[in-house]
Design a protein that fits this description.
The complex is a heterodimer of chains A (341) and B (280). With 341 residues, chain A is of the alpha/beta class. Chain A is built from 14 helices and 6 strands. Chain B folds into 2 domains: 3-159, Jelly Rolls, CATH 2.60.120; 168-272, Arc Repressor Mutant, subunit A, CATH 1.10.10. The chains are: A alpha/beta (341), B alpha+beta (280).
Amino acid sequence: MTLITYPTRVHFADDVLEEALHSELEREGCRLPLLITAHAPAHPELEDRVRAGLPPTVKPQLVTFSPESDQYTIVKDVTASGLMPDVIIAFGAARAIELGRKFRYTYAKKHNTRLSLYAIPGVDGLPGPCTRNLETWRAGLPSVLICDPTVTLAADGMQLRKAAVLSLVRCYESYLALAYNPPADGMALDGLNRCVNNLPKINAAADVDLHREVMAANLNAGLSQEKGVGPAIAMAAILAKVPGDTADIAGLILPAVARAQYVNSDKAEALRKVLGQDDLPLDRALDRILTFPNGPQSLAGLGISKTALDDAAAAVGDKFGLNFQSARAALDTIYEKEPTQ
Amino acid sequence: MSQAIAVCHGEFGRAALYRLDKTIITHAHREGHLIFFVGGCAAQVVSGSSTCGLDSQHAVAVSPWEPHSFHVKDGRTHICLVLYIKPMWFLENTPSAEYALKFGRPDIEITNEIDEFVNRLTALLLENEEHGQFDELLFGLTKSSFDQSWQNSEETLRTKSYERFSDFRVRRSLRLIQERMGEDFEMEKLARSVGLSRPHFFKLFKQYMGVTPNVYMNTLRSERAIEELLNTDKTVTDIAFDLGFSSQASFTRFFSSNVGIAPSEYRRVAHVTSGAFPMM
C-alpha cells in the first residue's frame, strides 16, 4: 500500500518567473515574503528578477546564507529583524531551497504556523530529500515551484553537466527503489531519458533548449525521489565536503554500485532501453554515459580520504540490495581508478 | 464624458461596462483583455500593427502586456463589456494550461455562443449583485474567445507564443521602476542606472517586455491606483500624491486616459467580490 502525494504547484516555462511569482503571491495574499538566497550568488541578477516579480504592496526581507549557515542562523536573523514572514521564497540554488525547507520546519515549531515555501531552482535543481526525519518527504516539498530555464542561462557547461549527472543518478536510483509508485517511476524514466539524450550535447555554448531539458530532468529527478534515495546518493552525501561535489561523486559511484547491486530483470531491461545501450550490462552502459573528457576519474582524485569510505559504506547498511562489505568493495574499485583511455 | 456603468472585481480579475466617448491612449494590462460591443456606435482598437473593429459582429482580444489604444469618433458614444482576466485564474480552470492567455490574433468574430455569453454577463453586471453563475459565464466567454483566436494557427506558433528572452539590464530596470513608482523619476536616469543610453534602453525594454518603459510604469500605477481606490479610505488627492503625481488634476487626467474614466467615478461604481484583492 502506498500513499502517493504531490501537493506542489509547478510553473514551468521560459521567462515565467516574474508573472508566476506575482500571480502566486497575489493568489495567496502574501505581503511579507522572506527571500532566501546565497550570500555571494554566482548570478546576482536573479535577485533583480525575483524582486521585479513582487507585487508593489509587498514588503520583502532578504536573508542571505554563507556555507556555514543553517536554519537556526536564518531563524536568528529573522527574529532579530522583527519580521513575521507570511511566505518563504528560496531561490537560485538547491542549498537555498534546502535552507528554506528547514527554516519553515523550525519556524513552524517556534511560532505554530506553517508558511508556504516557494522555490525557484537554479541550475543545480532541487535539494535531496531529508534523510534525518526532519520532515516527511511530502511535507518538505515546496508549495510552489517556479521552474524558469532562463534563470540558468548564465551557468557554464560544467555546472549544467553536473546537474544532469546528479539528476541521472537520482532518477536511476528512484526507479530502482522498492516502493510501489507508478507516477514516480514514470518521472524517473523520463528524467533519465532526458539526461541520457542531453548529456552528450552539453558544452559551453548550451542554448535555452538544452537548459530547459536539464531543468525538466532536475524536476523529475527531485519529484521522483518520493520513492527515496539510493546507495550512490546516500554515499555521495557522506563523502561530499561541499554540496557541489555530490554530483561528481555520485556519478563516479553509480556504475560501481550497479556492478554490485542486484536488479530485477524487468527493471534492468527498462533501464537498458532508456540508457540506449541494449547490448551492455547496466554498469558498463552507465560507465559509457558518465565518463567525460576532463571529468572526475576517481574518488582519490576528488580529494576524498580513504578513511571516509567506511562511513560512506555504513550509510548503505543492509539496504538497496547491498551490505557494508559490498558497498565498501564498490567504493574501493573507484578509489584510485585508472584514467579511462 | 466617459462613464462606468458597472464594474465588478473578483478572483478572475475585473469586468466592466463602460460608456466611452473619448480615446484611451496606448496602454497595457497584466491581464488578458477582451472588449465586446454592447451598444452605441462602433469603435476601433489598435493593437500592435492591427486595427480591429469593435461592433456587433466583432470583438477584440489583447494579450497580457500587449500595448493597445481605443478610438471612438468625436461626439459619439460606444458602450462595451470589458474583461481583464488574470492569466492565473484562466490557467486554474483550463485543462490544457499552457499558454497563459496569450491570444493567437486580436480580432474575434461574434458567434451565437459569444453573443449569448455577452448578453448574460451584461445583464448580471447591471444587476450589480454577486451571482453564482458570473464566474462560469466569464470563463466560458474567455475560453470561447481564446480558442477562436487560435483557430487556423500553426501549432508551432502557439507553442512559441510565450517565449521571451532575458536581458539583465531590463530585469534590473523592472525592479527599479517598481521601487520608485511613487517618485517623480526620469527615464534618462533610469536608463543610466542600468548602464544604457536612453534610446538603447527604450529599444531593449520594448524588445523584451513588448511595451515601452513608460507604458509599463503607467500600467503599474494604474493597478496600484485601482487597488487603493477600492480598498482604502484614502482621498483621491492622497492616492495621487502617493503615486508621485503633483496634483489631483494630473492624476485624474492620467487615470482617465489610461483606464477610460475618472478615478472618483471608478470608486463610486465598482463592486468588489470576495477574493478580488487578497493582497490588501
